[in-house]
Amino acid sequence: MTLTDSTDAVLAGLGGIRSGLEDVYKDVHAHPELGHQEHRTATRVAELLRNGGYRVHEGIGGTGVVGVLANGEGPTVLLRADMDALPIREETGLPYASTAEATDTSGRRVPVAHACGHDMHVACLLGAARLMAAAPGAWQGTLVALFQPAEEPGDGADRMLTDHLSDLVPHPDVAFAQHVLPHPAGQVGTRSGAFLSAADNVKITVHGRGAHGSAPQAAIDPVVIASMIVVRLQTIVSRELAATQPVVVTVGSVQAGTSGNVIPESAELLVNVRTYDDETRRAVLSAVRRIARAECDASGATRAPQIEEGTSFPPTVNDDGVTREVTAAFAAKFGERAVTAELQSASEDFSRIPDAFGTPYTYWALGCIDPDTYQAARQRGTVAQEIPVNHSARFAPVLQPTLDTGVQALVTAAITHLGRPGRISR
Ligand code: ZN
Ligand code: ZN
Q1: Do 147 and 35 share a structural domain?
Q2: What pTM was estimated for this model as a whole?
Q3: Are 23 and 168 within one domain?
Q4: What residue numbers bound the domain in which 233 lies?
């Protein structure tokens, strides 16, 4: 069988499952759950995988679910979807909009919505898993359908790995994932090499010496030190890196003092760093620490600053060879709807999974905005103003053709790396 024959044979079943899959999507959309609380979603996913003939492992790293389908000799392909939603009140006006609430980790009652489209990832992967199981004659090998919790907090993939994911699934030869982005629905966007940035959060606490606002000579002013750090951090991008290096260093929070006539004891800075490769990431983080320490020294601070690393996301760097094959298969399947995706400054924790296995991967963008709406906004030059982006209260994928395209993309990518009948497996 050729690549196209195998793909077509699997996707021939799509018409038969489409309406059921749309119902699953609407149900997950209407019942969003925060990271690590995806109990209902995970139960539903496990049940549907089991019905499809998958060997199912539940509760991995809390609420993670993995379905394994062995179909003879051949490579192992891992497909991943994330399941969690966000503490946002949905304002899409959709008939299946969420009205859900939940208690977050700090004990607050918050609204919950699938404002990042992970519900679409879940539905697409369930659809692909179902179709692959229904067409065992079209491919050979093992399919791993992995449903990850808590992508938004950034620790879902890690928790699955530390909960011995690698003992539960065969070693994947390749891994794939996709994410809905505010591009025209029906489009798939691939990119070789760096695609999503790494994100690191750093908290810097500057220790000075408090005094009356009238007596600076008695103080070591942490407000001035913090200000110098904020300004000097700007020189990492402008003076320490090549002009061709895309890096972002943002100080998103500066907190110190309560009154104009009191020099406070300390100041706190929250810094966010975005980089696209490990070497640059290490260099930038080390520069942040160096500048913080040196500015404290320069002002005669009695103590070194406290520097704490907060949540971090790894970079998403797509394998060249794998991406080339998937891009060619997408071009054959989707024609001009297969595009090259632009570098994104958003971040993901997906890559931790293939990286833990030493497995190459590619991650692509799935368009999800009604194509006519997008085109009209584009003609007016108002895409940025009119088209809601991920994490907006108004963000929701248009159900079709997003769902069909997402299922087709996963199946098409999986088939590129699985064995096919009548062909020696790779
Ligand atoms: Zn998100
Ligand atoms: Zn997301």
Answers
A1: yes
A2: 0.91
A3: yes
A4: 201-313
Residue that terminates a domain, selected from 313, 346, 365:
313
Q: At what angle do helices 320-334 and 399-417 cross, to 10 degrees?
A: 130
Q: Which of 261, 289, 313 is at the close of a domain?
A: 313
Domain count, the chain: 2
350 Cα–ligand 1 center, Å: 12
Residues 206 and 334 reside in one and the same domain: no
What is the phi/psi pair of residue 419, to 5°? -75, 155
Q: What is the pLDDT along the chain (426 residues), one digit of tens a residue?
A: 899 999 999 999 999 999 999 999 999 999 999 999 999 999 999 999 999 999 999 999 999 999 999 999 999 999 999 999 999 999 999 999 999 999 999 999 999 999 999 999 999 999 999 999 999 999 999 999 999 999 999 999 999 999 999 999 999 999 999 999 999 999 999 999 999 999 999 999 999 999 999 999 999 999 999 999 999 999 999 999 999 999 999 999 999 999 999 999 999 999 999 999 989 999 999 999 999 999 999 999 989 999 999 989 999 999 999 999 999 999 999 999 999 999 998 999 999 999 999 999 999 999 999 999 999 999 999 999 999 999 999 999 999 999 999 999 999 999 999 998 876 544
Q: How far is the CA of 152 from the centre of ligand 1 (A)?
A: 6
Which CATH number is 72's domain given? 3.40.630.10
- Work out the angle at residue 409's Cα, subtended by the Cα atoms of residues 2 and 327, and round it to the nearest 5 degrees: 70
Dihedral Cα 290, 296, 299, 302, nearest 10 deg: -140
| Residue 74 CA to ligand 1 centre (angstroms) | 34
Does residue 426 form part of some domain?
Answer: no
Could you tell me if residue 424 is inside a domain?
A: no
- Amino acid identity, residue 151? E
Q: How far is the CA of 149 from the centre of ligand 2 (A)?
A: 11
- Look up residue 67 and give its two tokens: 């379905």
Distance 346 CA to ligand 1 centre (A): 8
Question: What's the N-to-C CA distance of the chain in angstroms?
Answer: 14
**CATH at 245:** 3.30.70.360
Residue 175 is assigned to a structural domain of this protein: yes
Q: Is residue 12 part of a domain?
A: yes
Residues 297 and 224 in one domain: yes
> Which of 85, 103, 78 is closest to 160 using CA atoms?
78
Q: Which two tokens stand for residue 125?
A: 């992967």
Q: Which residues surround ligand 2, an ion (CB under 5 A)?
A: 116
d(CA 195, ligand 2 centre) in Å: 14
